[in-house]
Amino acid sequence: MATAWTAPAVEPADGPLVGDERAMLQGVLDWHRACLLQACGGLTGDQLARASVPPSNLTLLGLVRHLRKVERVWLRVRVGGEDLPALHGFGTGVDVDYEQLDPSRAREEHEALVEEWRLADAAAASVPLDVEVDAKGETLSVRLVYLHLIGEYARHAGHADLLRERIDGVTRA
Question: What is the total count of domains within the chain?
């Protein structure tokens, strides 16, 4: 009998409480990244793909896909200057990250997000925080990109907590 994959348990690591600005920004981003995966820990692909409350199409698996795309665009393309194709299976619509989910690909999606973090961190690591990048015609500092990503993860970690509680009643302390 085959067993369904379940997302691994994750505990957010404590980041630095003092240090230079780059280490602090990276530490807070990493903590929020782990919070997202913590909400997914122990769930199957079917559970990760379960929508919260109709008509919303928000799911944990959709958040994993969305944040993978966000990392790729903001850190690898805009900050790192990489010329990357669009992600396979992702369209251009606002909600496309949450549509056409395949629960049997949950493990691949989860692993792809973690790999995207590694690649995104590598692409941005040597770019000074004061460097300016283009974001759809607006000029932003790399510092603001980090703050944007922290805000994006904080928002979605809250969504993830509510989704998780709806699925099986588990809440974070």
Answer: 1
The SS3 assignment for 139 reads: strand
- CATH code for the domain of 40: 1.20.120.450
Instruction: Locate 34 and state its tokens.
Output: 């782990």
Kindly indicate the confidence band of residue 1, based on its pLDDT and cuts at 50, 70 and 90.
very low
> For residue 1, is it within any domain?
no
Is residue 51 over pLDDT 60?
A: yes
Contact 132, 12 (CB under 8 A): no
Question: Percentages helix, strand, coil for the chain, rounded to the nearest 5?
Answer: 55, 5, 40
Nearest by Cα to 43 from 160, 152, 173:
160
Query: In which band, very low, low, confident or very high, does the pLDDT at 14 lie, cut at 50, 70 and 90?
Result: confident
Tokens 């995104």, located at residue: 120
Please report the pLDDT score of residue 88 as a whole number: 67
Q: Do 93 and 35 touch, CB atoms closer than 8 A? A: no
Q: Is 7 left (phi over 0), alpha (psi -120 to 50) or beta?
A: beta
Domain that includes residue 112, residue range? 21-168
Return d(Cα 11, Cα 17) in angstroms, integer.
Answer: 18
